[in-house]
Amino acid sequence: MTSYYLLVGATGLLTVIGLIMVFSSSAVTEIAAGNSPFAALVGQGKFVLIGLPVLLVAARLPVRWYKALAWPALLVSVGLLVAVLFVGDSRGGNTNWIPLGSFSFQPSEIAKLALALWLGLVLGRKQHLLGRWSHVIVPAVPGALAVVGLVLAGHDLGTALVIMLLVAGAFLVSGASTRLLALGAAVAAFVVGYGFILNQDGGDRLGRIMATYGECTDRLGECYQSLHGLWALGTGGFMGVGLGASREKWSYLPEAHNDYIFAVIGEELGLLGSLLVLGLFVVLGLAMSRVVRRHPDPFVKIATAAIACGSSGRRSSTSASSSGSFPSSASRSRSSPRAAPRSS
């Protein structure tokens, strides 16, 4: 039960901190846009209210139910990803949302969980046969490629990379050949690097990578977001400037309540608040690693490892982008929303 309480405790604290920081980082821009200061908070709160009863029910379902749901969940998620290409909304250059009136959702998030369950099922059942490449590849690889390909068709490279990490975690824990894993990683790196970075059509991913790891020459373009994220973290110091007192969220830092919320956490809550959030994520990772090591069912081990790798990859990329050590994964540069210089 230790792993269960660690997961519940860390998740609950992160949810509360997340809602507080979403409100703090978005209230100013929502007022400036003529909306209620609580607009972004209410939007996130809807997902929390939906997720809580689902969590309570999911925690009490037996493992056999998840095994029975694996194939239907994957088929439904693939169907939703196909629907995104025809009726989806485009935000930040990525087509990954399906609108339902005043409510919208990302099918790729459903696909992550569905793919983790499905990989746990198919790899767990064939675990004693995974010494042969044919059993490793079929049907796991085509299923994973279908999900990744549909996400990439919506130009959402960041989510596709997270799903690739999820797939890698599942294969690694399943006992698949390390040579096959290395080959798959090399092929994925080539396809992403050549097809979606070097030869990106009408985008700026290569420019943002060069701006992150090279010399910054465009402070109002490619470097703008990462510079303001660094300034926010630096301004926070050890104790922070205080909850609600961020300067960067006043339309200087784009996506302050979203991709770059960790920068606002660092500015308002300081190094201590940043370490608290990162520490809670570490607790989540440790709890899931305990499940992977101790649970006797291969399905649970593989599915948990996949979810752990996918969620850890997403968290790491978000916090690293805020600190300027990793380029933003959005397909378009989110440059300066206001041309004014930064005040000190």
List the keywords:
about 350 residues, mainly alpha, three-stranded antiparallel β-sheet, 12 helices, disordered C terminus
Structure in words:
The chain is mainly α and 344 residues long. It has helices at residues 2-32, 39-58, 63-87, 107-125, 133-137, 140-153, 157-174, 178-198, 205-213, 224-236, 261-294, 298-322; strands at 89-91, 94-100, 103-105. It is globular, with a radius of gyration of 21 Å. Residues 331-344 have low confidence and may be disordered.
Question: Summarize this, please?
Answer:
Helix content is 68%, strand content 4%.
Q: What portion of residues belong to β-strands?
A: under 5%
Report mean pLDDT, rounded to a whole number. Answer: 89
Instruction: Give helix and strand order, one letter per element, not per position.
Output: HHHEEEHHHHHHHHH
Distance between the termini: 49 Å
User: Can you summarize the main beta sheet?
Assistant: 3 strands, antiparallel
Helices and strands, with pairings:
Elements: H1 2-32, H2 39-58, H3 63-87, E1 89-91, E2 94-100, E3 103-105, H4 107-125, H5 133-137, H6 140-153, H7 157-174, H8 178-198, H9 205-213, H10 224-236, H11 261-294, H12 298-322
Antiparallel strand pairs: 1-2, 2-3
